[in-house]
Amino acid sequence: MTTVVRPEARSWPVSLPDSLGIWPLLAALLVLFMLPAATIISNSVTEPENAGLSNFRSVLTDPTFAIFAINTVRTAVLVSIVCAVLGYVYAYVMYRSSPGLRAILIFCALLPLCTSLLVRSFAWTVILRDTGIVNWILINTGVIAQPVGMLRTSFAVTVGMAQILLPFSIFPAYVSMARFDGTLLRASRSLGAGPVRSFLEVFFPATRVGMIAGTVLVFVLSLGYFITPVLLGGPGDQPIAVLIDAQVTSLLDWGAAGAMSAIVTFFVLLFLAIGWRAVSRIFFA
Amino acid sequence: MKAGHFAKSIRLENVRKSYGSQIVLDDLNLHVEPGEFVSMLGPSGSGKTTVLNLVAGFDDPDAGSVLLDGGNMTGIAPEHRNIGVVFQNYSLFPHMSVAENIEFPLRMRGVSKAERREAVGKALSLVALDGFGDRKPEQLSGGQQQRVAIARAVVFNPDVLLMDEPLGALDRRLRGDLQLEIKTLHEELGVTIIYVTHDQEEALSMSDRVVVFNKGRVEQEGKPREVYRRPATLFVADFLGDSLSISAMASGDSVTLRELNTEVASSGHGLQGPVRLLWRSDQVSLAGANDPGDRILTMPATVETVAYAGTITRMRVKTSTGDIGVIEAAEDSEFAAGDAIVLALDLDKASLLPADEDNR
Amino acid sequence: MQTSSTSQIRKASGYRGLVTSLLMTPILIILLAPSLIIIPMSFTEVPFLSWPPKGFSAKWYARLFDSPEWLASLWHSLEVALLSTIIAVLLGVPAGVSLALKQWPGKQFVLAFIITPLVVPTIVVGIGMYKIYAWLGLFDRSGLVAAHVMIGVPLVVVTTMSAARQVNPVLLRAARSLGAGPVSTFFRVTLPIISSGVLSGAVFAFVSSWDEVVIAKFLSSPTYETAPVRMWAQITERVDPTVAAVSSILFTAALLLMISLMLFERVRR
After folding, report:
1. Distance from the A8 Cα atom to the nearest Cα atom in chain B, whole angstroms
2. Which residues cross the membrane (chain A) (predicted)?
3. What range does the domain containing C248 cover?
4. Domain count of the fold of chain A
5. In angstroms, what separates the C-alpha of C165 from chain A's closest C-alpha?
6. HSE (CB half, 13 Å, CA atoms) of B101?
7. Inter-chain contact C173–B85, Cβ cutoff 8 Å?
C-alpha cells in the first residue's frame, strides 16, 4: 500500500438539492399534461365566452348525459367486482403455487399486456358474436340450437374490460400476499383456528389492502374507458367518454366536452384520493 | 500503539446536532489522537453513530466543529475527506466483484490500472482473502464480506478509519476472530480508528480508549480497565457489565451505610448526599470461615436466581439492605434460589458513584 | 391422531386442487383467449373473419407488407414508441430515484401528481392535447411522442422507485466515503443496481405507447398515423383479416420484447 493519492481537497460543498431529479419531469408534466388537461376543464366555463356555469347546468340536466353517466357507473361497478374477486383468487393461487407454476401464472397475467387493448377488444368481437367461437362451441356440443346474442351487451363489455383490467387487480393483491408473514398462519392454527377461520380472520384482513388498492385502480380506470365499450357494447352500454368524443368530433361543443371532462375527472380524482392510502401502501411502500 | 505516517487526529468541539425536536448530540467534545483506537460505546440512540456520520461527512453539525488534524471539515463532502468507513453490513456493491469493490476508491482517485491491481492484491492478502478477487459479494459469507469491506476502506490509505458496528451482524465466534484481526490490522497500519459498538466486551478488548455515550453526551471516557473498574456513573457501571451496588450517604470525607450504621472512611470523592458503593460482580466473594479483616464488609443476602454461564455461575442476589445485584460464583457452586449467603465486600475495591435517579 | 389429521390434510388438498382448477380455468380463458385467438384468425383464406378459420394462407400478411400505408403506420408506431420511451426514461429515472432515496417535503403530493396521467381518462387528455399541442408547435411525431412520454413516464417512475427502494442507502454512503461524488455515485452504484427496474419500466412505457389509440387518434394526421389508429379506423369501418395480421404482428413484437426481458432477468441472476 504505497499509493497515497488524496482526493482533491475542495473546501466548497458539492451538494446538489435532493429534489433535483424531479424538476425536469415536473416541468414536462406541467406543460405537456397539466396545461392540456386544465385547458379542457377550463373550457367548461370559457366556451362559449362568459359561459359561467351554463355548460354544467345544461350537461347535468341533460337526460342523455344522465343515461351515459349511469352506463359508465354501472359498467365500472360490475367490472370492479369481477376484477376484485377474480384477481384475488388468481393472486391467492399464485401465492400458494410452487415457484415454477407461479412464474407461469405471472407470465399468463402479463401476457394480455402484450396485446394491444384495441386488438383484445376486437378479438372479443370475434369470440362473442353470433358466428363466433363461443356460439360455435355451444352449438357443436349441442347445448343450444340457435346462437345466443352476446356481443353488444353489458356482458360483453364487462368481460372485455375485466380481461384488460384484471392485471391491475392481480398484482396489488399478490404484492400484499407476498408481504404477508406466513408464520402468522401457523400461529393462528396453533392458537386453535382452523384453515377457514385462519384465512378469514388472519390472512384476508392482512391482505385486503392489496384487493382494495387494485379495485380502486380498476374502478377509476373503468370510468374513462372508451375503446372497449364502443366495440363490444350496445347502445345501452356507452359511457361518458363516448359522449365527450362526440361533443368534440361531431358537435364541436368544447364547452359541453369541458364540463363533462371536468365531471369525470373530478370523480376519478375523488375516488383515487379516497383509495390513495391503500394504493400508496401497495405501490410505494 | 504506533501512529502510521498518514494517521491523523480528530477533534469534535462543542458539537450540537438535532433531528427535528430530538437532540442527538448535546455540546459534545471529543479528541482522538493520531493512530489511536477509540471505541464509542452506548445504547442505540445515544448519539455514537451520529458522531461517526459527522466525522465521515454524511451530515454536518448544527453548531460546533469537526476538526481533522486541526482543519475544519464542516461543509466538505464525504468524497473529499479521505476517511474510510466500514458499515455494519451489506455495504459491498452487489454488482461489482470483490476486486472491483476494493479498487473502487482507487479508481475514484485516478490511480493507474497497474497500481490498482497491485494495491488490491495487497489489500486482499491483508484480510487473508487472496484469490477471492473475482467472486461476487453474494458468494461470500458474512465474515468474508466484512473483511472485503475493511480491505476496501483501508486500500486508499485513509486518514482515519471509522467502523460502525462492523461485527454486529456476525455470530459470536466469528466476531471474536475478526476482533483480533481488526486489532492486528490497527497495529500493522497504525491508522486512527473510531469504532462504534454497543458490545461492551468488544469495546473493552479492542480499544486504547473507550468513550461511553448516553443521551447525546459523553458519560465517561478512559482506558478500558479504568472505565470498567472505576465507572463514573451507574449508567456506565450497568452498561459495561454486571455489578452489585448498595446505597449509602456521603457527607464531608465520610460515607455511611445507613442500614448497617457502618461508617466507611473514604476521601477525595467530592460527593455529597446519596451515593452508591459499587463492586463488579467478580469483586464480590462469599464470606468464608476465616477472619474477614476490617476493610471487608460482610453482608447477608438471599440468592434470587442462578444462571450457569460455563466458566462461572452468575447469581442475582438481594442483600439485607434491599439492594439487588449480580455476583459471580465458582462454576461448580451449587446454590439454588432462596439460599441464604453472606457476601464479603472489599471496601478498598468499591467504586463510589452518585446515586443518580435518572440512571436507575 | 397424527395420521388422521395428516390424511385429512391430504384429502383437503385433493379438494383444493379440484376447486383451484375449477376457479382458475375460466379466469385463464378470459385472460388468454383474446390474445391467442388472433393469430389463427390471421391465417384464414376467406376475406372475412369467421370461426373456425377456413384454410391456411399468409395472403393477409402479404397484403399488409404490400401496403405502403400499413408499413408507414407500423414504422410511425415504432418511431413514436422508441422516442417516447427514451425520453420517459431520461425524465422518469432521476425522478424515481429522487423519490425513493432522497428526503424532501411534499413527496406524496408530487407522487400523486406524477401518477395522474395514468388515471385521468385518456379521452380528456387526448382532446386537451389536440387543442394545446398544435399551439405549442407539437405536430404529428413530436406531438405523439410528447403525449406518449406523459403516459409512459409514470410507469418508469413507479418501476424505478420500487427498484431504488431495494438499494441500501448504506451503499450510497459507502460510495461517497470511498471518494465518489454524487454524480459518479449515481452512475456507478445506483444505476447499475436499479437497471432491471429501469428496463422493465422502459418496456412498459414502450408497450403503452405501441398500444395507445385514444390520444393518438386525436394527434395523428393522415400523413402521420400510427398502426393502432389505422386499425381503429379499419375496425370501425370494415373488418378484413389484414387487421388480424397487424394485431398478430403487434402481439408477437410485444411478446418477444417481454420474453427477452424475462430471460435477461434470469441471466442476470
Report:
1. 6
2. 20-45, 65-91, 103-127, 155-177, 198-227, 254-276
3. 59-268
4. 1
5. 9
6. 31
7. yes
Residue C241 belongs to some domain of the structure: yes
Residue of chain A whose alpha carbon sits nearest to that of C92:
A25
Cβ-defined contact of B56 to C177 (cutoff 8 Å): yes
Residues C14 and C124 in one domain: no
What residues does B192 pair with on adjacent strands? B160
Residue A202 is part of a domain; what is its CATH number?
A: 1.10.3720.10
The answer to whether the peptide bond before residue A195 is cis (omega within 30 degrees of 0) is no
Domain that holds residue A162: 58-283
Edge-to-edge strands of the sheet including B312-319? B284-286, B340-346, B296-308, B312-319, B324-330
Structural domain total, chain C: 2
Higher pLDDT, C226 or B251: C226
Q: Hey, which of A115-124, A188-197, C58-67 has the most confident mean pLDDT?
A: C58-67
Tell which wins on pLDDT, A78 or B45.
A78
As given in the structure block, the three cell numbers for residue A63 are 337526460
Are B76 and A7 an interchain contact pair (Cβ–Cβ within 8 Å)?
A: no
Q: Specify the pLDDT at position A216.
A: 94
Contact partners for chain B, using 3 or more CB pairs closer than 8 A, are: A, C
**Nearest-10 crossing angle of helices C227-237, C68-101:** 120
Number of residue pairs across A and C with CB atoms under 8 Å?
Answer: 249
Q: What number of C-beta contacts closer than 8 Å exist between B and C? A: 65
Domains of chain B, start order: 10-229 (3.40.50.300), 242-359 (2.40.50.140)
Measured in degrees and rounded to the nearest 5, phi and psi for residue C206 equal -60, -50
Residues in contact with C101: Cβ distance below 8 Å, sequence separation at least 6, in sequence order: C164, C165, C167, C169, C172, C190
Can you state the angle between helices A240-249 and A254-283, rounded to 10 degrees? 140
List A residues 139-158 in contact with C (Cβ-Cβ < 8 A): none
The reply to whether C37 and C148 lie within a common domain is: no
Give yes or no for A104 touching C (CB within 8 A): no
Going by their DSSP bridges, the two strands B217-222 and B296-308 should be labelled as: unpaired
Task: Find the mean pLDDT for residues B78-89.
Answer: 89
Residues C120, A265: C-beta atoms closer than 8 Å: yes
* 3 state DSSP class of B324: strand
Question: Could you identify the residue written with the cell 476508491?
Answer: B105
Angle at C217 between CA A108 and CA C46, to 5 degrees: 65
pLDDT of residue B292: 62
Q: Are residues C149 and C246 in the same domain?
A: yes
pLDDT digit string (tens) for C52-108?
777 788 888 888 888 898 899 989 999 999 999 999 999 999 999 999 988 888 888
